[in-house]
Protein backbone atom coordinates (compact mmCIF):
# COMPACT_ATOMS: atom_id res chain seq x y z
CA UNK A 1 0.00 0.00 0.00
CA UNK A 2 2.86 2.40 0.79
CA UNK A 3 4.34 1.82 -2.70
CA UNK A 4 1.02 2.81 -4.39
CA UNK A 5 0.84 6.11 -2.47
CA UNK A 6 4.39 7.01 -3.40
CA UNK A 7 3.60 6.49 -7.14
CA UNK A 8 0.57 8.83 -6.95
CA UNK A 9 2.64 11.61 -5.39
CA UNK A 10 5.21 11.42 -8.21
CA UNK A 11 2.44 11.49 -10.80
CA UNK A 12 0.85 14.51 -9.19
CA UNK A 13 4.20 16.35 -9.00
CA UNK A 14 4.92 15.57 -12.63
CA UNK A 15 1.49 16.81 -13.69
CA UNK A 16 1.90 20.06 -11.77
CA UNK A 17 5.32 20.61 -13.34
CA UNK A 18 3.91 20.07 -16.82
CA UNK A 19 1.07 22.50 -16.13
CA UNK A 20 3.50 25.16 -14.88
CA UNK A 21 5.72 24.72 -17.91
CA UNK A 22 2.70 25.07 -20.17
CA UNK A 23 1.56 28.22 -18.37
CA UNK A 24 5.00 29.83 -18.60
CA UNK A 25 5.33 28.77 -22.23
CA UNK A 26 1.96 30.15 -23.17
CA UNK A 27 2.73 33.40 -21.40
CA UNK A 28 6.03 33.74 -23.22
CA UNK A 29 4.38 32.84 -26.53
CA UNK A 30 1.65 35.42 -26.04
CA UNK A 31 4.19 38.08 -25.22
CA UNK A 32 6.31 37.06 -28.17
CA UNK A 33 3.53 36.93 -30.73
CA UNK A 34 1.91 40.05 -29.29
CA UNK A 35 4.85 42.34 -30.16
CA UNK A 36 4.08 44.64 -33.11
CA UNK A 37 7.39 43.99 -34.82
CA UNK A 38 6.85 40.23 -34.70
CA UNK A 39 3.32 40.52 -36.00
CA UNK A 40 4.54 42.68 -38.87
CA UNK A 41 7.31 40.19 -39.54
CA UNK A 42 4.73 37.47 -39.81
CA UNK A 43 2.86 39.56 -42.40
CA UNK A 44 5.97 39.57 -44.56
CA UNK A 45 7.50 42.99 -43.85
CA UNK A 46 11.29 43.17 -43.72
CA UNK A 47 13.13 44.34 -40.62
CA UNK A 48 14.19 47.55 -42.39
CA UNK A 49 10.61 48.42 -43.35
CA UNK A 50 9.33 47.48 -39.90
CA UNK A 51 11.78 49.93 -38.33
CA UNK A 52 10.20 52.66 -40.47
CA UNK A 53 6.62 51.56 -39.81
CA UNK A 54 6.80 51.41 -36.01
CA UNK A 55 8.10 54.97 -35.81
CA UNK A 56 4.62 56.16 -36.71
CA UNK A 57 1.63 55.02 -34.68
CA UNK A 58 -0.86 55.60 -37.50
CA UNK A 59 1.20 53.66 -40.04
CA UNK A 60 1.72 50.85 -37.53
CA UNK A 61 -1.99 50.54 -36.91
CA UNK A 62 -2.67 50.45 -40.64
CA UNK A 63 0.00 47.81 -41.31
CA UNK A 64 -1.21 45.57 -38.46
CA UNK A 65 -4.85 45.71 -39.51
CA UNK A 66 -4.37 45.17 -43.24
CA UNK A 67 -2.68 42.74 -45.58
CA UNK A 68 0.92 43.32 -46.55
CA UNK A 69 0.98 46.56 -48.59
CA UNK A 70 3.63 46.44 -51.30
CA UNK A 71 3.16 50.10 -52.24
CA UNK A 72 3.68 51.12 -48.62
CA UNK A 73 6.91 49.11 -48.64
CA UNK A 74 7.95 50.88 -51.85
CA UNK A 75 7.19 54.40 -50.67
CA UNK A 76 8.03 54.44 -46.98
CA UNK A 77 11.73 54.93 -47.73
CA UNK A 78 11.06 58.05 -49.84
CA UNK A 79 11.95 61.10 -47.76
CA UNK A 80 8.82 63.12 -48.58
CA UNK A 81 6.39 60.21 -48.11
CA UNK A 82 3.15 61.23 -46.40
CA UNK A 83 0.97 58.45 -45.02
CA UNK A 84 -2.06 60.72 -45.28
CA UNK A 85 -1.63 60.62 -49.07
CA UNK A 86 -1.44 56.82 -49.34
CA UNK A 87 -4.80 56.47 -51.06
CA UNK A 88 -3.83 59.19 -53.55
CA UNK A 89 -0.52 57.45 -54.22
CA UNK A 90 -2.40 54.22 -54.93
CA UNK A 91 -4.88 55.95 -57.22
CA UNK A 92 -2.17 57.72 -59.24
CA UNK A 93 -0.04 54.57 -59.39
CA UNK A 94 -3.00 52.60 -60.72
CA UNK A 95 -3.29 54.93 -63.72
CA UNK A 96 0.45 55.52 -64.14
CA UNK A 97 2.17 52.20 -63.61
CA UNK A 98 5.59 53.39 -64.83
CA UNK A 99 5.93 56.19 -62.28
CA UNK A 100 8.93 55.83 -59.97
CA UNK A 101 8.50 55.91 -56.20
CA UNK A 102 10.24 59.25 -55.84
CA UNK A 103 8.28 60.85 -58.66
CA UNK A 104 5.00 59.40 -57.40
CA UNK A 105 5.46 60.94 -53.97
CA UNK A 106 6.50 64.29 -55.43
CA UNK A 107 3.67 64.51 -57.97
CA UNK A 108 0.96 63.61 -55.47
CA UNK A 109 2.36 65.79 -52.70
CA UNK A 110 2.52 68.77 -55.05
CA UNK A 111 -0.91 68.36 -56.66
CA UNK A 112 0.11 67.12 -60.10
CA UNK A 113 -2.36 64.23 -60.12
CA UNK A 114 -4.30 65.71 -63.05
CA UNK A 115 -1.25 65.14 -65.29
CA UNK A 116 -0.31 61.78 -66.76
CA UNK A 117 3.16 60.67 -65.77
CA UNK A 118 5.96 60.96 -68.31
CA UNK A 119 9.71 61.62 -68.20
CA UNK A 120 8.95 64.93 -69.94
CA UNK A 121 6.68 66.03 -67.12
CA UNK A 122 9.44 65.45 -64.58
CA UNK A 123 12.01 67.14 -66.81
CA UNK A 124 9.83 70.25 -66.98
CA UNK A 125 9.35 70.30 -63.21
CA UNK A 126 13.07 69.87 -62.53
CA UNK A 127 14.20 72.49 -65.04
CA UNK A 128 15.55 75.90 -64.04
CA UNK A 129 13.07 78.71 -64.70
CA UNK A 130 10.12 76.28 -64.52
CA UNK A 131 6.88 77.85 -63.29
CA UNK A 132 4.02 75.57 -62.29
CA UNK A 133 1.41 78.10 -63.40
CA UNK A 134 2.69 77.74 -66.98
CA UNK A 135 2.84 73.94 -67.14
CA UNK A 136 -0.24 73.62 -69.36
CA UNK A 137 1.30 76.11 -71.77
CA UNK A 138 4.64 74.25 -71.77
CA UNK A 139 2.90 70.99 -72.61
CA UNK A 140 0.72 72.56 -75.29
CA UNK A 141 3.72 74.25 -76.90
CA UNK A 142 5.63 70.99 -76.81
CA UNK A 143 2.82 69.27 -78.70
CA UNK A 144 3.41 71.62 -81.62
CA UNK A 145 7.21 71.77 -81.28
CA UNK A 146 8.36 68.26 -80.46
CA UNK A 147 11.80 68.95 -81.89
CA UNK A 148 12.60 71.45 -79.12
CA UNK A 149 14.31 70.65 -75.84
CA UNK A 150 12.41 71.22 -72.62
CA UNK A 151 14.62 74.14 -71.56
CA UNK A 152 13.95 75.90 -74.86
CA UNK A 153 10.20 75.42 -74.49
CA UNK A 154 10.35 76.93 -71.00
CA UNK A 155 12.37 79.86 -72.32
CA UNK A 156 9.86 80.56 -75.07
CA UNK A 157 6.72 80.17 -73.00
CA UNK A 158 8.15 82.26 -70.15
CA UNK A 159 8.82 84.94 -72.76
CA UNK A 160 5.21 84.63 -73.98
CA UNK A 161 6.15 83.78 -77.54
CA UNK A 162 3.67 80.93 -77.54
CA UNK A 163 1.42 83.91 -78.31
CA UNK A 164 1.88 86.03 -81.41
CA UNK A 165 3.39 89.46 -80.83
CA UNK A 166 0.84 92.13 -79.95
CA UNK A 167 -1.70 89.49 -78.89
CA UNK A 168 -2.66 88.49 -75.34
CA UNK A 169 -1.38 91.90 -74.33
CA UNK A 170 -1.35 92.88 -70.65
CA UNK A 171 -1.02 96.29 -69.11
CA UNK A 172 2.46 97.13 -67.85
CA UNK A 173 2.51 97.19 -64.06
CA UNK A 174 4.50 100.34 -63.34
CA UNK A 175 4.52 99.52 -59.61
CA UNK A 176 7.48 97.24 -60.37
CA UNK A 177 9.50 100.43 -60.82
CA UNK A 178 12.90 99.81 -62.37
CA UNK A 179 11.89 96.23 -63.11
CA UNK A 180 8.67 96.99 -64.99
CA UNK A 181 8.46 95.46 -68.44
CA UNK A 182 7.32 97.04 -71.67
CA UNK A 183 7.45 94.92 -74.81
CA UNK A 184 5.19 93.40 -77.46
CA UNK A 185 3.10 91.66 -74.80
CA UNK A 186 3.01 94.46 -72.22
CA UNK A 187 1.51 97.84 -73.08
CA UNK A 188 2.32 100.93 -71.04
CA UNK A 189 -0.41 103.07 -72.59
CA UNK A 190 0.14 106.82 -72.37
CA UNK A 191 2.18 106.54 -69.17
CA UNK A 192 4.33 109.57 -68.28
CA UNK A 193 7.15 109.04 -65.74
CA UNK A 194 7.14 111.54 -62.91
CA UNK A 195 10.76 111.48 -61.76
CA UNK A 196 12.66 112.57 -64.87
CA UNK A 197 15.55 115.00 -65.17
CA UNK A 198 17.23 116.70 -68.11
CA UNK A 199 20.45 115.11 -69.39
CA UNK A 200 23.33 117.62 -69.28
CA UNK A 201 25.04 118.45 -72.58
CA UNK A 202 28.29 116.92 -71.27
CA UNK A 203 26.76 113.49 -71.61
CA UNK A 204 24.84 113.98 -74.86
CA UNK A 205 25.75 113.12 -78.40
CA UNK A 206 26.11 116.57 -80.05
CA UNK A 207 22.82 117.68 -81.50
CA UNK A 208 20.70 115.55 -79.19
CA UNK A 209 18.89 116.13 -75.90
CA UNK A 210 16.37 114.55 -73.60
CA UNK A 211 15.38 113.24 -70.20
CA UNK A 212 15.97 110.21 -68.00
CA UNK A 213 14.63 108.84 -64.76
CA UNK A 214 16.59 110.49 -61.95
CA UNK A 215 18.10 107.27 -60.56
CA UNK A 216 18.90 105.97 -64.03
CA UNK A 217 20.66 109.23 -64.81
CA UNK A 218 22.78 108.94 -61.65
CA UNK A 219 23.69 105.34 -62.52
CA UNK A 220 24.56 106.38 -66.06
CA UNK A 221 26.86 109.18 -64.84
CA UNK A 222 28.65 106.72 -62.55
CA UNK A 223 29.14 104.40 -65.52
CA UNK A 224 30.16 107.24 -67.83
CA UNK A 225 32.86 108.35 -65.39
CA UNK A 226 34.21 104.81 -65.03
CA UNK A 227 34.49 104.45 -68.81
CA UNK A 228 35.96 107.94 -69.11
CA UNK A 229 38.91 106.84 -66.97
CA UNK A 230 39.74 104.45 -69.79
CA UNK A 231 39.43 107.24 -72.39
CA UNK A 232 36.04 106.03 -73.55
CA UNK A 233 33.01 108.22 -74.22
CA UNK A 234 29.63 106.59 -73.73
CA UNK A 235 27.17 109.27 -74.75
CA UNK A 236 23.39 109.49 -74.65
CA UNK A 237 21.77 109.74 -78.06
CA UNK A 238 18.16 108.79 -77.41
CA UNK A 239 16.72 108.60 -73.86
CA UNK A 240 13.06 109.16 -72.85
CA UNK A 241 10.42 109.42 -75.55
CA UNK A 242 6.79 110.34 -74.98
CA UNK A 243 3.91 108.31 -76.37
CA UNK A 244 3.34 110.89 -79.11
CA UNK A 245 7.01 111.03 -80.07
CA UNK A 246 7.19 107.24 -80.38
CA UNK A 247 3.98 107.22 -82.39
CA UNK A 248 5.48 109.70 -84.86
CA UNK A 249 8.76 107.74 -85.12
CA UNK A 250 7.02 104.41 -85.66
CA UNK A 251 4.56 105.75 -88.22
CA UNK A 252 7.38 107.28 -90.25
CA UNK A 253 9.16 103.91 -90.31
CA UNK A 254 5.95 102.22 -91.44
CA UNK A 255 5.63 104.68 -94.31
CA UNK A 256 9.24 104.01 -95.25
CA UNK A 257 9.51 100.21 -94.88
CA UNK A 258 6.02 98.91 -94.28
CA UNK A 259 4.51 97.71 -91.00
CA UNK A 260 5.94 94.18 -91.00
CA UNK A 261 9.53 95.34 -91.38
CA UNK A 262 9.10 98.37 -89.10
CA UNK A 263 7.92 96.04 -86.32
CA UNK A 264 11.31 94.30 -86.34
CA UNK A 265 13.23 97.40 -85.33
CA UNK A 266 10.78 99.96 -83.95
CA UNK A 267 8.21 99.78 -81.18
CA UNK A 268 4.62 100.80 -81.62
CA UNK A 269 3.44 103.66 -79.44
CA UNK A 270 2.72 102.39 -75.92
CA UNK A 271 5.11 99.47 -76.32
CA UNK A 272 8.43 101.31 -76.25
CA UNK A 273 10.87 101.05 -73.36
CA UNK A 274 11.98 104.59 -74.08
CA UNK A 275 8.61 105.74 -72.73
CA UNK A 276 9.58 104.41 -69.29
CA UNK A 277 12.63 106.74 -69.12
CA UNK A 278 14.65 103.65 -68.14
CA UNK A 279 16.18 102.97 -71.57
CA UNK A 280 19.04 104.67 -73.41
CA UNK A 281 20.40 104.46 -76.93
CA UNK A 282 24.14 105.02 -76.59
CA UNK A 283 26.58 106.58 -79.01
CA UNK A 284 30.18 107.80 -79.07
CA UNK A 285 31.78 110.97 -80.38
CA UNK A 286 32.59 109.22 -83.63
CA UNK A 287 29.51 107.11 -84.34
CA UNK A 288 27.23 108.56 -86.96
CA UNK A 289 24.05 106.61 -86.33
CA UNK A 290 22.38 103.70 -84.55
CA UNK A 291 23.75 100.63 -86.28
CA UNK A 292 25.53 97.46 -85.25
CA UNK A 293 28.22 98.07 -87.86
CA UNK A 294 28.86 101.44 -86.24
CA UNK A 295 28.38 101.44 -82.45
CA UNK A 296 28.69 97.65 -82.27
CA UNK A 297 32.31 97.87 -83.45
CA UNK A 298 33.47 100.46 -80.91
CA UNK A 299 35.63 100.05 -77.81
CA UNK A 300 32.79 101.61 -75.87
CA UNK A 301 30.50 98.78 -76.86
CA UNK A 302 33.07 96.20 -75.83
CA UNK A 303 33.46 97.95 -72.48
CA UNK A 304 29.68 97.96 -71.97
CA UNK A 305 29.52 94.25 -72.68
CA UNK A 306 31.90 93.63 -69.80
CA UNK A 307 30.81 96.32 -67.38
CA UNK A 308 27.30 97.71 -67.94
CA UNK A 309 25.69 95.24 -65.52
CA UNK A 310 27.89 96.55 -62.69
CA UNK A 311 25.97 99.81 -62.93
CA UNK A 312 22.51 98.26 -63.35
CA UNK A 313 22.28 98.25 -67.16
CA UNK A 314 21.70 95.36 -69.57
CA UNK A 315 21.88 95.02 -73.35
CA UNK A 316 18.16 94.82 -73.97
CA UNK A 317 18.05 93.30 -77.45
CA UNK A 318 21.00 90.90 -77.74
CA UNK A 319 22.16 89.05 -80.83
CA UNK A 320 20.52 85.70 -81.35
CA UNK A 321 17.51 86.52 -79.18
CA UNK A 322 15.45 88.35 -81.80
CA UNK A 323 12.73 85.68 -81.69
CA UNK A 324 12.40 86.28 -77.93
CA UNK A 325 12.59 90.08 -77.74
CA UNK A 326 10.76 90.71 -80.99
CA UNK A 327 13.40 93.16 -82.16
CA UNK A 328 16.55 93.02 -84.23
CA UNK A 329 19.86 93.00 -82.39
CA UNK A 330 20.60 96.51 -81.11
CA UNK A 331 24.13 96.94 -79.75
CA UNK A 332 23.31 100.49 -78.63
CA UNK A 333 20.08 99.94 -76.69
CA UNK A 334 20.53 99.50 -72.93
CA UNK A 335 17.97 99.25 -70.17
CA UNK A 336 18.36 100.05 -66.47
CA UNK A 337 16.98 97.37 -64.12
CA UNK A 338 19.18 97.84 -61.03
CA UNK A 339 22.53 96.32 -60.14
CA UNK A 340 21.30 93.12 -58.50
CA UNK A 341 18.93 92.25 -61.34
CA UNK A 342 21.46 93.21 -64.02
CA UNK A 343 24.04 90.90 -62.48
CA UNK A 344 21.62 87.98 -62.67
CA UNK A 345 20.79 88.70 -66.30
CA UNK A 346 24.51 88.96 -67.08
CA UNK A 347 25.63 85.91 -65.11
CA UNK A 348 22.82 83.66 -66.31
CA UNK A 349 22.95 84.98 -69.87
CA UNK A 350 19.18 85.44 -70.18
CA UNK A 351 16.95 88.05 -71.76
CA UNK A 352 14.92 90.48 -69.71
CA UNK A 353 11.75 88.67 -70.82
CA UNK A 354 13.01 85.53 -69.07
CA UNK A 355 14.22 87.43 -66.01
CA UNK A 356 10.97 89.34 -65.56
CA UNK A 357 8.72 86.29 -65.71
CA UNK A 358 10.80 84.10 -63.40
CA UNK A 359 12.25 86.55 -60.90
CA UNK A 360 9.73 89.39 -60.84
CA UNK A 361 6.32 88.12 -61.96
CA UNK A 362 6.98 84.58 -60.64
CA UNK A 363 3.99 83.13 -62.47
Please tell me about this protein's structure.
With 363 residues, the chain is an alpha+beta fold. Among the domains are: 39 residues, no CATH class; 192 residues, Muramoyl-pentapeptide Carboxypeptidase, domain 2 (2-Layer Sandwich). It is 48% helix and 9% strand. It has 17 helices and 8 strands. The chain has a 4-stranded antiparallel β-sheet. Strands 1-2 form a two-stranded parallel sheet. Helix 9 packs across helix 10. The longest helix has 33 residues. The N terminus is likely disordered.
Explain briefly what this protein structure is:
The protein is an alpha+beta fold and 363 residues long. Helix content is 48%, strand content 9%. Among the domains are: 30-68, no CATH class; 170-361, Muramoyl-pentapeptide Carboxypeptidase, domain 2, CATH 3.30.1380.
Which helices and strands appear, and what pairs or packs with what?
Elements: H1 2-34, H2 36-43, H3 47-53, H4 57-65, H5 70-75, H6 86-95, H7 101-109, H8 119-126, H9 135-144, H10 150-158, E1 170-171, E2 186-187, E3 196-198, E4 211-213, H11 214-228, E5 235-238, H12 243-257, H13 259-262, E6 279-283, H14 299-307, E7 313-317, H15 322-325, E8 330-336, H16 339-348, H17 352-361
Parallel strand pairs: 1-2
Antiparallel strand pairs: 3-4, 5-6, 6-8, 7-8
Helix pairs in contact: 9-10
Amino acid sequence: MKRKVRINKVAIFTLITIILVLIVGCTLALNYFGKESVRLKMKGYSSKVIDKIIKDEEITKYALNNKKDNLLIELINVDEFKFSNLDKYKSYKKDNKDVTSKDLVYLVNNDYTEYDYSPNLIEFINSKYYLKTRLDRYLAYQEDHQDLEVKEIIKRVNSNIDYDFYTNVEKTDTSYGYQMICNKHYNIGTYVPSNIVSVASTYLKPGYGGYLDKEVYAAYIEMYNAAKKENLNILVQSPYRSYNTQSSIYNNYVKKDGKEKADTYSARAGYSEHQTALAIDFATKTTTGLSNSDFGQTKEFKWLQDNAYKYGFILRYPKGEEYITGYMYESWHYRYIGKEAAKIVHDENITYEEYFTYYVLKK
